[in-house]
Specification:
Elements: E1 6-9, E2 16-20, H1 22-29, H2 40-57, H3 64-81, H4 88-97, E3 99-103, H5 107-116, E4 121-125, H6 131-137, E5 146-149, H7 150-153, H8 160-170, E6 177-181, H9 184-193, E7 197-201, E8 214-216, H10 222-227
The chain binds magnesium ion.
Length: 228
């Protein structure tokens, strides 16, 4: 019998990291540059800024259609900052192609091991409404009994509503749940406030979190902790 009835998992910084291929972006759009050659050096700032804008504002767009409109506008703003003039379909297609979601080395092994212990897993993430599709593209859908994305709930962690929705979906009692995440505030404090144990995944060596039930350098030690 495991120590927990359910494990909640954050995504970015916990199961995978997000990368932007600025060089690829430049290669794709160089031909549309209206003021001299487009370089990686020049493009880096605006391209990464577009991701920050996406992270900050996706919560306002609660349907795929609405989000698609925001993504197109975001791609257009980025292009404008770089003096690129191209059809908006081209801009959004390039923006989609040049972002990647990269699993940490141990992520799949750990999810499998937790599943083999009979512990249901739930994604609890500050993410836009496209998260289920991204997990599906990674081949991860089968690992999870449910996906709770902030944009679908309408608020972000550490707000209690996100954890409440995950508790509702899982049917688990807070004192029998472990939430796993890399953010000291949104994950560790957010879960703790709900009476949910938190595992702090400290990939940047920030040091032990006083409110975490456990602090781990990566996910590798998670199955042993959940086993108790
Ligand atoms: Mg995270």
């Amino acid at each position: 019998m495991a120590k927990y009835d359910a494990v909640f998992l954050d995504v970015d910084g916990t199961l995978l990291w997000v990368n932007l291929d600025v060089e690829g972006y430049v290669g794709d759009l160089a031909a549309y540059s209206k003021s001299g050659p487009l370089t990686v050096e020049r493009a880096s700032g605006p391209v990464w800024e577009s991701i920050r804008r996406h992270i900050k504002e996706n919560i306002k767009h609660r349907t795929e259609e609405d989000l698609a409109g925001f993504k197109a506008e975001n791609a257009r703003i980025t292009a404008e900052a770089l003096d690129i003039v191209a059809p908006v379909e081209v801009l959004t297609e390039v923006a989609n192609r040049r972002i990647s979601f990269n699993p940490y080395a141990e992520s799949v092994r750990v999810m499998r091991e937790l599943r083999s212990m009979g512990v249901p897993l739930y994604v609890v993430s500050n993410w836009d409404v496209l998260l289920p599709g991204i997990l599906d593209d990674l081949g991860w859908t089968g690992y999870f009994d449910g996906v709770v994305a902030s944009a679908a709930v309408g608020v972000e962690k550490p707000e209690p509503d996100v954890f409440e929705e995950a508790l509702r979906v899982s049917g688990a009692s807070p004192d029998r749940v472990l939430h796993v995440g890399n953010d000291p505030v949104t994950d560790v404090e957010g879960a703790s406030e709900m009476g949910i144990d938190a595992a702090f995944i400290d990939r940047t060596d920030a040091g032990e979190h006083p409110r975490a039930a456990v602090t781990l350098p990566d996910l590798a030690g998670l199955p042993d902790f959940v086993r108790g």
